[in-house]
From TrEMBL:
Protein name: Cytochrome P450 4F5
A GO MF label: oxidoreductase activity, acting on paired donors, with incorporation or reduction of molecular oxygen
Stretches assigned to coiled coil: none
Organism classification: Eukaryota, Fungi, Dikarya, Ascomycota, Pezizomycotina
Record's keyword annotation contains Cell inner membrane: no
Keyword Heme in record: yes
InterPro entries, A to Z: Cyt_P450, Cyt_P450_E_grp-IV, Cyt_P450_sf, Cytochrome_P450_monoxygenase
Organism: Lachnellula suecica
UniProt keyword terms in alphabetical order: Heme, Iron, Metal-binding
Length: 553
């Protein structure tokens, strides 16, 4: 045993702390003790040096090393997070908005893998570093999903929803997550696959009519209808009538939930003060929230009570007519059910989280298939080779067996990740990978789009290349280098459903239609929306009359 004094390199000598080193233990134990003592989130990046002895990378060197011993994190001196200083009051708002994706990319290039902005009084940290993402998503002692006034979900926070809009330490999260997750398990999703096929078949009627008229259509608008049709059925066993005709209106619930995401984006990009204003977007958001709640309560009341038999969780996922029915009947092994007070809010979140994301992903899938040459033909050939026809009854086994479709979806989610940018909050002052000092209560946005496009992580990130997924480098990537559904305890619980839906619907669309992009203007992604969706993407979908022959081998 030897006792030594340690301090962060560059910190005042008065901050040094004594640590006892057991020289029999591995080096990693010392890193761990130092991490605990200095609130460093990840111990493996810690290294030591003194001016006199240089780097100390072996425990044998510590016996005679001069104190205090300096600590570096990932080779860096611990420092504050940089960022633009901005203007009075507005802060960096005009440096970031409206093109937040493009401007955040510029700020990563300028400041490195962690930066902070203060926009209209709201301070936010951003990272494109998988190591930082791992620590924040991990929700260990230092980080958690805690929706404080700097968090982008603050305007729609709802502890009764349990999932998505509530804090991890809320009792509701624990309960709702435990009940809801099995309803979206691979086994449960299998049970919902015929509904996904039915959604695509309903839409065919409308796309055939467009084709007959020789008309182009806006992809996002129809994928929005498609995604919500699938989720309306899944969550509420409701037919939204989105494909009764070409111009069928959006169901009120779907329209209002979509509007809320726009309003929340407006409110959350301003300071907290703005959310309390009794006019404009904050007022509209409050009214909309009340309206949506009423619509969901009505829809829930229509489902519950029709079949009251309680079911064990595992059976309920397979026997229930929809998520609401499941939540009303599922009983755990102690005989407990999910309290009714969470039911309608948890359902609303499932609807919202479920359709806007899948609508964007379906849109980016079609965008990629028509924009990157060869991919549409390659997918069609794969469908033919695997025996798909117009009469195919889709099953998860078939959908999961298509290798090109699998890597295609991954590449679309990498380059055109649609998802909302998740935030995690520091529970204490903490030093994160890269050596950045983060104060307690700071909100870190794990910038999924920028992690997926980070040139330090991905070769030629701007290149659309599904085959990269078959390379060793990508297969052995850092575990949080690809996080379309986030990671850790608060990651997406609907990802099985989403992927299955996209596999079935895209396959059915590509088998039936030849898609062509209409117009050559650059794609706009709608910076005023909470998710990344292509705004001005139009296609002609021409009904196929012939298909390629089966490949010979
Ligand atoms: C392409 C489709 C989807 C994407 C990209 C996506 C992405 C995400 C992401 C990034 C999160 C984490 C949010 C955060 O940490 O703040 C999340 C959470 C969540 N997602 Fe998804 N999602 C998709 C589809 C779905 C579907 C279809 C459902 C339900 C049917 C769903 C239900 C949820 C729920 C309930 C949560 C919250 C989990 C919790 O709070 O513990 N998602 N999703």
């Amino acid at each position: 045993m030897v006792k030594k004094s340690f301090m962060l390199v560059g910190a005042p000598a008065s901050s040094a702390k004594e640590i006892e080193i057991d020289l029999q233990n591995p080096f990693e134990y010392l890193q761990y003790d130092v991490a605990q003592t200095f609130a460093i989130a990840q111990s493996k990046g810690i290294s030591f040096q003194t001016e006199k002895d240089g780097a100390l990378d072996d425990l044998d060197n510590f016996t005679d090393a001069t104190s205090p011993i300096g600590i570096l994190v990932d080779g860096n001196q611990v420092r504050d997070v940089p960022g633009p200083s901005g203007l009075p009051i507005a802060g960096s708002y005009y440096e970031v908005y409206p093109d937040h994706l493009g401007n955040h990319q510029r700020l990563f290039e300028q400041y490195g893998s962690v930066f902070k902005t203060t926009d209209m009084g709201r301070t936010t940290y951003y990272t494109n570093d998988p190591k930082v993402a791992e620590v924040c998503f991990g929700e260990g002692g230092f980080w958690s999903k805690k929706i404080n006034s700097d968090h982008p979900l603050y305007g729609i926070k709802d502890q009764n929803a349990g999932v998505f809009l509530s804090d991890t330490d809320a009792e509701s999260w624990n309960i709702v997550h435990r009940f809801l997750a099995p309803a979206l398990s691979p086994k449960a999703v299998r049970h919902y696959t015929p509904q996904m096929q039915n959604t695509a078949e309903q839409a065919f009627k409308v796309f055939d009519e467009f084709d007959k008229e020789g008309e182009a259509w806006n992809v996002y608008q129809y994928m929005f209808k498609m995604g919500s049709t699938a989720i309306g059925k899944l969550a509420l066993n409701m037919d939204l009538h989105h494909f009764d005709s070409i111009n069928a209106p959006l169901h009120d619930l779907v329209r209002t939930v979509g509007e809320n995401l726009e309003l929340n984006k407006k409110v959350s990009t301003m300071g907290d003060w703005y959310s309390h204003m009794p006019w404009g977007a904050p007022k509209q958001l409050k009214q909309n929230k009340a309206h949506v709640k009423q619509l969901v309560d009505e829809a829930v009341a229509n489902v519950v009570g029709k079949d009251t038999e309680d079911l064990p969780i595992a059976d309920a996922a397979l026997k229930a007519s929809c998520i609401v029915d499941y939540l009303a009947r599922a009983t755990d092994d102690k005989g407990n059910k999910m309290p009714e007070k969470y039911r309608s809010d948890a359902t609303l979140v499932t609807v919202g989280a479920g359709f806007i994301t899948t609508a964007s992903l379906l849109s980016w899938m079609l965008f990629s298939l028509v924009s990157y040459p060869g991919n549409q033909q390659r997918l069609l050939q794969e469908l033919v080779d695997y025996g798909v026809t117009e009469d195919t009854e889709w099953t998860p086994d078939l959908a999961n067996s298509l290798p090109f479709l699998g890597i295609l979806i991954k590449e679309v989610q990498r380059l055109h990740n649609p998802s909302y940018q998740p935030g995690r909050t520091a529970l204490a002052d903490v030093i994160i990978p890269g050596g950045y000092r983060i104060p307690k209560d700071s909100v870190m946005i794990i910038a999924i789009h920028h992690i997926h496009n980070n040139a330090k992580v991905w070769d030629d990130p701007e290149k659309f290349d599904p085959d990269r997924w078959n390379t060793d480098k990508v297969q052995n990537r850092h575990k949080t280098a690809y996080v379309p559904f986030a990671a850790g305890p608060r990651m997406c619980i609907g990802f099985n459903f989403a992927l299955e839906e996209v596999r079935v619907i895209i396959s059915m669309l590509i088998y039936r239609y030849q898609f062509e992009k209409v117009g050559n203007e650059p794609m706009e992604y709608d910076p005023a929306f909470q998710l990344v969706r292509p705004n001005n993407f139009y296609v002609r979908a021409k009904k196929r009359t012939s298909w390629p022959k089966k490949s010979e081998n």
